[in-house]
Write a structure and sequence with these properties.
The complex is a heterotrimer. By secondary structure, chain A is an all-alpha fold. Chain A is 74% helix and 0% strand. The chains are: A mainly alpha, B alpha/beta, C alpha/beta.
């Protein structure tokens, strides 16, 4: 039946997904384009409060905070995509291995999962980052190596369940090969879980990257990262220059929320039981 | 052909003290339809799973013409039809694909089981148990199938559908000389379809 | 006698998504009317997956959010609104659900039966309810996984009757049980009805229903096609609708005669009698009629244009 005039929930979800992904893509691309402009200093315009020309104001070196924020967000998103992708691949491999390679492999992998999950994320990211020499490589290694366990656990459970599913057992008895079973029955069930799990990794990755950088264990201070901007702005907060921290901080929160909603909505669309409204 | 279970014992992990089946033997010949009736929890379903090779007994052997059932490659000549058809079809696949899992299904079988053309493009969640059971039967009646194990296959169906499905199965079994194991709690049904009744 | 529950022209629809973003309305139950009197067992019999469970959910006011219903449900003479159902369920109206899955796996049986209530002799009540169904005090301290299928079923019944309800709805309560265990459970239902409760027994198994029911309503394609006294099922001649007759003839004891074809989906037959395709007494007008009303016949009701043709 047609619902005249108003959109149904799947349509609005789809539109939201496209818009959110679009906004994030635009931020990322603009940030890359403005990377040089973000470093441009101009001492004729230092410490300006937000005004129509400089939406987010300028800092003590006359850098346009709007441009800096964009460049920082862009860097964060790129690091987020990279780390989430690495984490997701690790989760997929380890999760499947735990489920498929017998009880001993399962015990070892499950133990590693528990171990990594048992250490506070931020601490682990810091340690790995320092061990890898900080900077871009350190942050990427730290975040990717610490975010895979929860997704790996989901995938392990899912594969274990699928292995015992009567429809897969029945297919085997009907002569379907292992590869055919994986392709026909397992991947379609795993893919939605995996995709949404991956998208939901982004916000974590971005936040952790920013916080580690803020604490000084991540990206170096020349890079226009959100963490760097925030930690520098802290020194100026007491002198009344609130805009230096407020706008970049809000933007970071907005991006994180956008990613979280994106994952949430994607799950709703991909979930087979969502046919029921 | 003959399908035999030779003094099999089966227990679930960690439940060695209370085995589901203890030193149990049964044999079914081609053309025979053996009825099995017992109170719940006596391992009727487990026996079917063992005979079809879904599980392995801890001791004893399951042989089809002297060769272990699990040693047969390709389509297993012993096929099981389950009580709950909705668990045996992939919820994300259209039923046409599920039906063709082991190669195309004979038009004659599809027609005799009243599987409508329109159902093939549907997903399992859209069909009722009775309709899904028809798909499971059509799939299990592969030309290679020599023995069919029916675990309460009509317990969830209405009487008309039950009669329809059994009528067809009996004809088919007769024509192919297929052996069958029929698990049911209904005396009337067992009396109608079986050539002999076994105990468990 | 004044009926405890009256259902008039109840229809239930689902809203579903097709592939992609199209939406559609799916009728599950169409134009159902039913009366339940105190002391009586009324059975609703239909094929599995035909939406019978939704009937129970509608009475309890727990239909899923993507469905809606038309028609009236009256309890004790007054309309049963969502709010009233909420107050009554678990007290005056109780449900005996399908399976063991309805027990909380992490909660001890005793605590589940008490449903979190304290004092007021509830412990004693709980103990008595268990005792009535042959379950000892030790059952209270057990977790659901320790129960056998039959015990779990008895726990569910005990849990439903601790508050001495006036209307009990049993939704397919005996699947997977052998005849002996099932008839013991059904015996308990009969006892409950004899003690004055109205009982709605939802099942796919006509033979089982006939063992305890006073009245039987038969579903076909989401519609009630016949409502009759259980005694009418003694022989085919007592029945009114050709499908009910076919059910009778399909019993293994009565010839095991099948029909051709399959039940259509509720709502897919837009015109005429939904049974027309399978009916061996079909007349030309059966497929043409705009609507087939439920009509009174020999102390029962039937939805057929030519019930006399089946005589």
């Amino acid at each position: 039946m047609k619902t005249a005039g108003r959109m149904n929930r799947r349509q609005s979800t789809l539109i939201f997904l496209v818009c959110a992904a679009g906004v994030l893509a635009v931020v990322m691309i603009m940030g890359i384009a403005l990377e040089d402009a973000a470093l441009e200093t101009d001492f004729s315009r230092t410490n300006l409060a937000p005004c129509p020309e400089y939406l987010f104001g300028t800092d003590w070196m006359g850098r346009d905070m709007f441009v800096r924020t964009l460049a920082g967000l862009s860097l964060s998103i790129r690091i987020g995509i990279l780390t989430a992708a690495v984490s997701a691949v690790m989760a997929l491999l380890l999760g499947t291995a735990a489920a498929m390679l017998g009880s001993r492999a399962d015990a070892v992998i499950s133990w590693v999962i528990d171990l990594v999950m048992g250490i506070p994320h931020i601490l682990l990211v810091m340690l790995i980052s320092i061990a890898c020499g900080r900077g871009f490589a350190g942050v990427v290694a730290g975040v990717s190596l610490s975010h895979w366990p929860s997704l790996a656990r989901v995938i392990r459970g899912e594969v274990l369940q699928l292995k015992q599913a009567p429809y897969i057992l029945a297919a085997e008895k009907l002569g379907a090969s292992r590869i055919a079973n994986v392709r026909r029955h397992m991947i379609p069930h795993l893919l939605p879980q995996f995709l949404t799990g991956t998208i939901l990794l982004f916000p974590h990755a971005i936040l952790h990257e920013a916080s580690v950088t803020f604490l000084g264990f991540g990206l170096s201070s020349e890079q226009p990262a959100i963490g760097v901007i925030l930690s520098e702005s802290m020194q100026y907060l007491t002198t009344g220059r609130w805009w230096l921290a407020l706008f970049p901080g809000l933007c970071l929160v907005a991006v994180v929320i956008l990613f979280a909603l994106l994952g949430e909505r994607a799950r709703m669309l991909l979930d087979p039981s969502s046919v029921h409204e | 052909m003959i399908l035999e279970a030779k003094s099999i014992t089966f227990y679930y992990r960690g439940r060695k003290k209370s085995p589901v089946l203890n030193n149990y033997s049964i044999s079914i010949r081609s053309g025979e339809r053996v009825g099995l009736k017992a109170p719940s929890g006596r391992g009727k379903t487990t026996l079917c799973r063992l005979l079809a090779g879904y599980e392995k007994p801890q001791s004893g052997k399951i042989l089809l013409d002297g060769k272990p059932v699990t040693a047969y490659r390709g389509v297993c000549p012993v096929q099981m039809v389950w009580q709950h058809p909705e668990t045996v079809v992939d919820p994300l696949l259209r039923l046409g694909e599920t039906l063709a899992e082991a190669g195309p299904v004979d038009e004659r079988i599809r027609g005799a089981l009243h599987i409508e053309e329109g159902w093939l493009s549907r997903f399992p969640a859209e069909l009722s148990g009775g309709e899904l059971q028809r798909f499971c039967l059509a799939r299990a009646l592969h030309p290679e199938t020599k023995f069919l194990l029916c675990d309460e296959i009509s317990a969830m169906l209405d009487l008309v559908t039950q009669a329809q499905i059994w009528k067809f199965l009996l004809e088919e079994a007769e024509k192919r000389g297929m052996g069958m194991l029929v698990v049911s709690h209904s005396d009337g049904l067992l009396e109608k379809v079986c050539t002999r009744i076994a105990a468990i | 006698m004044k009926p405890i529950l009256e259902i008039e022209h109840l229809s239930i629809y689902f809203t579903q998504y097709d592939r992609g973003i199209r939406k559609r309305q799916l009728p599950v139950i169409r134009d159902l009317s039913l009366k339940i009197c105190p002391g009586q067992v009324t059975a609703v019999v239909g094929a599995s997956g035909s939406g019978k469970s939704l009937l129970a959910h509608a009475i309890l006011g727990i239909l899923p959010y993507n469905s809606h219903m038309d028609g009236v449900i009256r309890y004790d003479g007054e309309e049963l609104t969502g709010k009233r159902a909420e107050q009554l369920r678990g007290r005056e109206i109780s449900l005996i659900p399908q399976g063991v899955n309805y027990l909380d796996p992490l909660m001890k049986v005793g605590a589940q039966i008490r449903k979190g209530r304290k004092g007021g002799g509830i412990r004693e009540k709980c103990r008595q309810a268990l005792k009535r169904y042959g379950l000892g005090e030790e059952t209270e301290e057990m977790f659901p996984f320790e129960l056998s299928g039959g015990m779990a079923r008895r726990v569910l019944i005990a849990s439903a009757v601790t508050e001495s309800p006036r209307l009990i709805i049993a939704d397919e309560p005996t699947p997977g049980l052998d005849v002996k265990a099932a008839s013991r459970i059904l015996g308990h239902f009969r006892e409950l009805a004899d003690a004055g409760a109205g009982m709605l027994f939802i099942t796919h198994d006509l033979e089982l229903a006939l063992t305890i029911a006073d009245r039987v309503a038969v579903f076909y394609a989401g519609e009630t096609i016949e409502e009759a006294a259980a005694a009418d099922f003694q022989e085919a001649r007592g029945l009114r609708h050709p499908f009910t007759k076919a059910l009778w003839n399909a019993m293994p004891e009565h010839g095991f005669i099948p029909l051709k074809g399959a039940q259509p989906y509720p709502g897919t037959v837009r015109k005429g009698c939904p049974f027309a395709e399978q009916c061996d007494r079909r007349r030309p007008d059966c497929k043409e009629a705009e609507e087939v009303p439920l009509r009174e016949l020999r102390g029962g009701r039937v939805r057929c244009l030519h019930p006399e043709a089946a005589e």
